[in-house]
From TrEMBL:
<feature type="compositionally biased region" description="Low complexity">
    <location>
        <begin position="163"/>
        <end position="178"/>
    </location>
</feature>
<feature type="compositionally biased region" description="Polar residues">
    <location>
        <begin position="187"/>
        <end position="196"/>
    </location>
</feature>
<feature type="signal peptide">
    <location>
        <begin position="1"/>
        <end position="17"/>
    </location>
</feature>
<dbReference type="InterPro" id="IPR052479">
    <property type="entry name" value="GPI-anchor_Adhesion_Reg"/>
</dbReference>
<feature type="compositionally biased region" description="Low complexity">
    <location>
        <begin position="117"/>
        <end position="132"/>
    </location>
</feature>
<feature type="compositionally biased region" description="Basic and acidic residues">
    <location>
        <begin position="133"/>
        <end position="162"/>
    </location>
</feature>
<protein>
    <submittedName>
        <fullName>Uncharacterized protein</fullName>
    </submittedName>
</protein>
<feature type="region of interest" description="Disordered">
    <location>
        <begin position="116"/>
        <end position="196"/>
    </location>
</feature>
<keyword id="KW-0732">Signal</keyword>
């Protein structure tokens, strides 16, 4: 009871001095990284102070000193996490206290605020694969062997006549109009020659 009365009197005596702007009821902290503390002051305030985090609603929670010898004229400071990380929950408060470690000398006290578990952020990478189109076929002649198939681009002199008459015969299959028997007529040639 006596301690509560001393704390209340110390706070009231400096009520017109330092004032914590944030964190507050609407704008709390998270458990990730440094957290922003802002305040106001008057010229007659102590030039420096220490910052203490407390929570009287958590059983077994001991006040944590977050910073010492803070320059009051800065009006803001990023506070690094405690060695065990930020606690999470509701009804936290930040106190500005004297640098001598006397928690009973309170210059200012924040409103109640929450420290929420934000969790680590994850990033997703996307890999895009581009397929190069294949080259279009060219109109150049095929240099590969014909694999035994006939080459349509060149005449085939060894191709059989398929039963058609051979046009290499001088008379082209036409009758001989010379009046003489054809040389290819066989025995008639020998008889005619003997008669002549």
């Amino acid at each position: 009871m006596l301690r509560t009365t001393v704390l209340l009197l110390a706070f009231v005596s400096s009520a017109l001095g330092y004032a914590v702007i944030s964190p507050n009821t609407k704008s709390g902290w998270t458990n990730q990284g440094a957290q922003l503390l802002t305040w106001e002051r008057v010229r007659t305030d102590s030039p420096t102070f220490s910052v203490v985090l407390e929570n009287q609603d958590l059983d077994g929670f001991n006040p944590i000193i977050l910073a010492t010898k803070v320059d009051g004229t800065l009006l803001k400071k990023n506070l690094n996490p405690p060695s065990d990380g930020w606690p999470t929950g509701s009804n936290f408060r930040v106190n500005f206290v004297a640098d001598n470690g006397n928690f009973n000398t309170i210059y200012a006290q924040s409103k109640y605020f929450d420290i929420v578990n934000k969790g680590p952020t994850s990033t997703t990478s996307t890999t895009t694969t581009t397929t190069k189109p294949t080259d279009k076929p060219t109109d150049k002649p095929n240099d590969k062997p014909n694999d035994g198939k006939p080459n349509d681009n060149k005449p085939n002199d060894n191709k059989p006549n398929d039963g058609k008459p051979n046009n290499s015969n001088p008379n082209d299959g036409k009758p001989n109009n010379s009046g003489l028997p054809d040389k290819a007529s066989g025995p008639h040639n020998s008889t005619l020659n003997k008669a002549l």
